[in-house]
């Protein structure tokens, strides 16, 4: 059974097809510069998201990982494969969860599972958008990574002409 996970996509250019075409036309050596910028960006977002992830057991935070070389062997994805990540990230509307699913958590926090279930039924759960905030906190560094790597790539090309 596949687990639901959380993935926040950040698009820097709304015309992704144009970007993909542009990337595929670059010589392999230029692609390496862009790959490096993507990797640095993914690791930056991963680190910032982990800093912002609420921690109970640490499972959610430790599940956040970067996958490299996704789009044209250049892009990267930061995601988690923990099935409850989306509920932590987005929060929930009021609903009545089964108390049995809260028992382990309630024991760790020395409280009653039914009391927690009733509170969730009244208020829902608060959103903790750790991935979104991690990505937003990384934007400035990402711009620098790409600027630096593109500059290096152009300097390389200039030397090849």
Summarize the structure in short.
With 161 residues, the chain is mostly helical. It has 7 helices and 3 strands, in the order βαααββαααα.
What are the main properties of this structure?
mainly alpha, elongated, three-stranded antiparallel β-sheet, 7 helices, 61% helix, 3 strands, single chain, 161 residues
Please tell me about this protein's structure:
This protein has helices at 16-25, 28-52, 59-63, 85-90, 99-108, 113-123, 130-160; strands at residues 6-7, 65-68, 76-80. It is built from seven helices and three strands. The longest helix is centred in the C-terminal third of the chain and has 31 residues, at 130-160. The protein is mostly helical and 161 residues long. Strands 1-3-2 form a three-stranded antiparallel β-sheet.
């Amino acid at each position: 059974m596949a687990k639901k996970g959380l993935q926040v996509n950040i698009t820097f250019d709304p015309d992704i097809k144009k970007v993909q075409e542009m990337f595929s036309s670059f010589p392999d050596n230029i692609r390496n510069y862009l790959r490096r910028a993507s990797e640095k960006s993914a690791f930056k977002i991963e680190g910032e998201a982990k800093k912002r992830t609420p921690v109970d057991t640490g499972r959610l935070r430790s599940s956040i990982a970067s996958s490299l070389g996704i789009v044209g062997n250049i892009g990267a994805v930061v995601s988690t494969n923990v099935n409850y990540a989306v509920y932590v990230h987005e929060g929930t509307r009021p609903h009545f969860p089964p108390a049995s699913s809260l028992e382990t958590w309630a024991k760790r926090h020395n409280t009653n599972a039914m009391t927690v279930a009733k509170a969730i039924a009244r208020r829902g759960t608060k959103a903790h958008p750790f991935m979104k905030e991690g990505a937003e906190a990384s934007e400035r560094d990402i711009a620098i990574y790409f600027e630096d790597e593109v500059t290096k790539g152009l300097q390389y090309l200039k030397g090849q002409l």
